[in-house]
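Running log. JK asked me to keep both predictions on one page so they can be read side by side. First protein, sequence followed by its tokens:
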Amino acid sequence: MNPPVRVRLRDENGEGVENTSLSVHHRAEVCGEVALQVHEGKDAMDALERLERPWRSLTGDSDPPFLTYTWNQAWYHLYAVSGCRPLIFELASGDRTLAILPCYLEGRTIRLAGDRICDYQDVIAADDGAASLLVAAAMEWLSAKGRGGHFRFERLSTEGRLFRVLHGSDDVPRSSLRFEKTFAPCPWTSLRGGLEGYLAGLPRKTRQDFRHSLNRLEKEAPSARVTILRDFGIQVSDLWGAAAFHTANFRKTGESPFRDHRLIDLLGRVAKDPEVGFQLGVLTLHGDFLAVDFGFARGRRYYGYLTSFDQAHSRWAPGKCLILRRIDQWVGEDGVEELDFLSGNEPYKASYTGGEAYQVWSIRLIPDGLAGRVRLAGLKSNRRLRQIAKRVLHRDEGLPR
């Protein structure tokens, strides 16, 4: 176990902090002596079990599902076992945990846990002050190691705490360099109290198209049924069947994320914890899938994680109808007020949301020094080349990474 990095603060009447590498922007929120504990490898897996109670207490009901303890616990046990090293930063004051940053080490790069299978990740913290102190102490720890490493926060929501801390220049540790860029939009929309209210708020042409799709499905496939499975009602066979359908009907570049069966296992684990709010929605006709939707109902928001429909029945717009038919259930049974499509600029999302979106950013924190400045220069040069290439190709979407 690594010795804790001690960070001593003045009390509420003090003028600042003793360690000049720390931001003082939030000094009034966290006072007293705090310590950063860095858990690596097996120590991180042991710490993960110990941190369950504080993790759950620091996670609000409306936080995205990717921040929940069960999601992260499942990810560490399934994904952080080969090719990467578990790494968890914990900021504590006495026996009270103030903030947790779940990460993993890939070579010399520190990344956020689950960043390749979730739409965004964040720090788990009591407030922005604790988050700011944790980041500053973690950067101090990384700089002291002197191995050329850096933090790569690949997906941060503009609604999240870590983005707020890092994007504001006053809160970035003074001993670090920062490189950031937008990653993708996250379209969302208000459900306006139910299906009729939602449709009434849409542009006339879109509203007519949605009503026409619903009416056509009802007329031509009256036996089509929507089934919503929640929590303990979700069986392993349900997940495998829906995942197989998603894989067979995957139309984006690359392949379905369900090709890696660990994702099916992860969803099976989180389904057993009602706190995560996992739901599996399916539209079927005589027992055959027409469309599937994997998502999460948390707080006032439904997060649409993965969806797919059978192209052979595109005349009925089954994916669209699955979403529209669920709106009244989301509002009435789950207390949902907003529909969040998570990250991605697929054109179909704009028809539901009217262009309303928050953003996901990529932010890197690099220890200041010669090696860090060389790395930063390389990142900026690469960004300029990509921008030139996009203009030449007349492309607005991101180039393959």
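And the second, directly underneath as requested:
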Amino acid sequence: MVIDLKHLLRIILVVVTLSIGVIVLLSYVFESDVLMLLRSVFVEWSVIVIAFAMLLGVLNVLRVHAGRIQHANGTAYSVILIFSFLIVFVPGIMPSDRVPAYVQGFVGPTGSVVGFIYQNVQRPLQAALFSLMAFFIATAAWRAFRVRSPASLVMFIATLLVLLGSIKINVGQGWRLVTETKNWALSVPVMAGARGILLGIVLGTIVTGLRLLSGIDRPYSD
């Protein structure tokens, strides 16, 4: 009798995933010290697994870009990536209490090197990316608000009312009516649509979880 090791491994993965998932779910439903203990153990294990997965991901990124540098394919970007990683990672993991006194303020997760890079490099880059995103959103809105159908006309009018009602000016009773219309639109139809979307997200999450627990979807075995 020949045993298919790949099929056996999939069965073991499904059983382990199903068991851990059911135990964690039951720990939120029933008050049991055993279930709470098992849940805490599984959560600690998951944190360790995630940490090693992140480490493998970082090593894979470095390996890929080191290969690009070796083959002179996109060398500039790869050099910048590896240099940026090392200049943040190396000072960040150095224990500040085990280095000479004259460098203690520079190393560690809260050291001046990491803080300087975050304040003067990462935050300005994030601000620049968000500003570019604003232009892309404005362009997409301009294309979306072209009145080509009754639905797009309703969307355009609703968006215009919300934008005008959000402006803090007072030019008479007519403007007050616009503000009240905006408040009604946000509290009644928009809230109803948001609740429907949230309900759909919850149902989709439940179905996805059940498919994972039952072994129908097995991303962990691919």
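Observation for JK regarding the second prediction: Helices lie at 5-29, 33-70, 75-93, 112-144, 150-165, 173-187, 189-214.
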